[in-house]
Amino acid sequence: MNRVKLLFFATLRDRAGTKSMELEIPADLTVQGLKDKISDEYPNLKQSMSSVLITINREYAFDEAVIPQNAELAMFPPVSGG
Amino acid sequence: MNYPTIFSITEAEIDLNDLLAQITLRSTGAAAIFTGIVRGETKRGDAHDTEYLEYEAYVPMAEAKLKQVADEIRTRWPIVEGIAIVQRIGKLYPKTPTVLIACTAAHRDTGVFDAARYGIDRLKEIVPIWKKEVGSNGEFWVEGEYTPKAGE
Question: Which residues of B touch A (CB under 8 A)?
Answer without folding.
Answer: 36, 55-58, 60-62, 64, 87, 98-99, 120, 123-132, 141-152
